[in-house]
Amino acid sequence: MSHPGGRGLPPATSSDASRARWNRRWAEERAGASTAPSECLVAELEGVSPGFALDLACGAGRNAVWLARRGWQVTAVDFSPAALAMARALASEAAVTVDWIEADVVAWSPPSRGYDLVCVLYLQLPALERRTALARAAAAVRPGATLLVLGHDRLNLTEGWAGPTQADVLFTPDDVVAEIDGLEVIKAARVRRAMAEAPPGRDAIDALVRARRPDSG
């Protein structure tokens, strides 16, 4: 199994204003963000043997570092240098190696069919940009390998808790399924995530899709 690599990158195309906004968020209100991995990621990968993983929009690296600690060879991509600085510090503390790449996941093209696992967790973008990012994510999945997409569901805006308040960056499992051509859908569901600060009876509502590329695909 060859390493897919991650060099020869095109420049990121997100606006300077957007990048600056996310840098401020990571430096300010997200400076103390949890370093624990997504519980959904942990559950979905139970029993899965490690290989080459790609974490798109990795943020401060909590999921990429968790994967690396479990033997995955991880490439992680985010367009915020502030987030990546936090991610590198987390990896150093955990004594693991991750290939961190500063790039916009809407503009960056990963190696075709290069990974055993591609994760797209909480990448909340307008529909057109999301379709582009998910199409490239799906193309990076090797035959027999897994794509895992998780994000704030559209229903979360009215029935859930926390998360983005802009409806145009929310999506449903059906949206994701329609945007990952060539993959077999294993699971497509709304999942609820308990949050300590939520009022009784209110959970965060996420959209989860797990898919695989057929072995002959």
Verbal overview:
The protein has 217 residues and is α/β, with parallel strands linked by helices. The protein has one domain (51-212): Vaccinia Virus protein VP39 (Rossmann fold, 3-Layer(aba) Sandwich), CATH 3.40.50. It is 29% helix and 25% strand. It is built from seven helices and seven strands, in the order ααβαβαββαβααββ. It has helices spanning 16-27, 39-44, 62-69, 81-94, 127-139, 156-159, 173-178; strands spanning 52-56, 73-78, 98-102, 115-121, 141-152, 184-193, 204-212. A seven-stranded mixed beta sheet has the order 3-2-1-4-5-7-6. Helix 5 (127-139) links the parallel strand 4 (115-121) and strand 5. Helix 3 runs parallel beside helix 4 (81-94). The protein starts with 15 loop residues before the first helix and ends in a 5-residue tail after the last strand. The model is unreliable at 1-14 (pLDDT under 50).
Topology of helices and strands:
Elements: H1 16-27, H2 39-44, E1 52-56, H3 62-69, E2 73-78, H4 81-94, E3 98-102, E4 115-121, H5 127-139, E5 141-152, H6 156-159, H7 173-178, E6 184-193, E7 204-212
Parallel strand pairs: 1-2, 1-4, 2-3, 4-5
Antiparallel strand pairs: 5-7, 6-7
Helix pairs in contact: 3-4
Structural descriptors:
7 helices, alpha/beta, single chain, 217 residues, Rossmann fold
Concise summary:
By secondary structure, the protein is an alpha/beta fold.
